[in-house]
Amino acid sequence: MSGSSVSDFCVSGSSLPRLLLLATGGTIAGRASDVISLNHYSAGVIAGEELLQSVPQLKQLAEIEVEQIANVDSADLTFAHWQRLVTRVREALAADPDLCGVVITHGTNTLEETAWLLQLLINDPRPVLLVGAMRPATALSADGPLNLFQAVQVAVSPEACGQGVLVVMDGWIHSACEVTKVATQGVGAFESPDVGPLGWVDDAGVHLTPARSDRPVPFAHLQLAEPWPQVAILHGCVEPPSALIPALLSAGVHGLVFTGTGAGQLSAHERRALEDWTGPLPLMLRANRCGSGPVHHRGQFARLGLVPAGRLSPQKARVLLLLALMAGLDRAQLADLI
User: Fold this and answer.
1) Whole-angstrom Cα distance, residue 331 to residue 314?
2) Annotated catalytic residue 27
3) In the 8-state DSSP scheme, what is residue 60?
4) Are residues 45 and 171 in the same domain?
5) Beta strand residue intervals within the chain, DSSP E
6) Which residues have CB under 8 Å from 170's CB, separation 6+?
7) Residue 275, class by beta-carbon neighbours within 10 Å (0-12 exposed, 13-18 middle, 19+ buried)?
8) How many CB atoms lie within 10 A of CB 305?
9) Total domains in the fold of the chain
10) Residue 219 lies in a domain
11) CATH number of the domain encompassing residue 328
């Protein structure tokens, strides 16, 4: 899309901008037996079209086409769902230059992983936003309707163009690179540790800092292959089971992400298991369990083949490793992406 500014792709030729809404389920599409049930409900029950109709004010913002990609609790998402979603976003943006952007309704449990996946794969200046809810649609004071309205508000704004994949929750606008779910309850359950949100949205408008012009999209041309690689996450703790790492390696796992203690520390038990393994070691990343802060290079871990994950959470490190394995990257090429 060279030769055009990013704002050129955020303005529709019609009286209202056009958006594609892709629904995947989650709490935002959840239903409970009564209005005060906040914990006991079924996620992924209400169709995307019904969500759209429940917020009639959206008609003032955009012409919205709805497609149902899935309707599940996001804990039950599969690689097949991800593949369908990525393919549809790519196809929609490529086929329709007048499309203003894409909004994805999503469960909050794995929303950050899907956002990061799309960030690594979608190379287009037009907004791709994810939005969810912490309360089911049937709840008293449900947060989903306002979250959805504000996500569309951001998606049709010129300020959102060129920002990469965004997450809109509770009035805050987060980057897919930074956002994470930090609480099991409460509408303010999403944060961007260390750096904070990119901006916010309210009835006065969309408040965002200018977009970067050099946003990297390392897997923009990657065609997602089946089957997906098998990548496991290991959680650091006091004396982890000694048989776990050998069992995974014997099973032929393609990659490992270590959720290390402190700044990505592996225990003596884990280091010994890697040292004692006589076969080839898979690609491995070293993240931390603290929730914020970076993991840096350390010689003792580099010698074992472990690449520091920087500021990536374990779950985002796994997404990166999945795509790196699909792309056939080696350890040095993987390290260059972090």
Assistant:
1) 17
2) yes
3) G
4) yes
5) 18-25, 63-72, 99-105, 128-131, 165-169, 172-175, 180-181, 190-191, 199-202, 205-208, 231-235, 255-260, 283-288, 306-308
6) 143, 147, 187, 188, 189, 190
7) exposed
8) 14
9) 2
10) no
11) 3.40.50.40
Spatial separation of the C-alpha atoms in residues 82 and 80, rounded to whole Å = 5
For residues 125 and 133, give the distance between their C-alpha atoms in angstroms, rounded to a whole number.
Answer: 26
Spell out the per-residue pLDDT of the chain, length 338, in tens.
Answer: 323 333 444 544 458 999 999 999 999 999 999 999 889 999 999 999 999 999 999 999 999 999 999 999 999 999 999 999 999 999 999 999 999 999 999 999 999 999 999 999 999 999 999 999 999 999 999 999 999 999 999 999 999 999 999 999 999 999 999 999 999 999 999 999 999 999 999 999 999 988 877 788 999 999 998 999 999 999 999 999 989 999 999 999 999 999 999 999 999 999 999 999 999 999 999 999 999 999 999 999 999 999 999 999 999 999 999 999 999 999 999 999 99
Give the amino acid at 283.
Answer: L
For residues 91 and 172, membership in a common domain is answered with yes
| Contact yes or no for 309/257 (Cβ under 8 A) | yes
Taking the CB of residue 14, how many other CB atoms lie within 10 A of it? 11
Catalytic site residue from 24, 27, 110, 114: 27
What domain range includes position 269?
Answer: 231-336
Tell me, yes or no, whether 322 lies in a domain.
yes
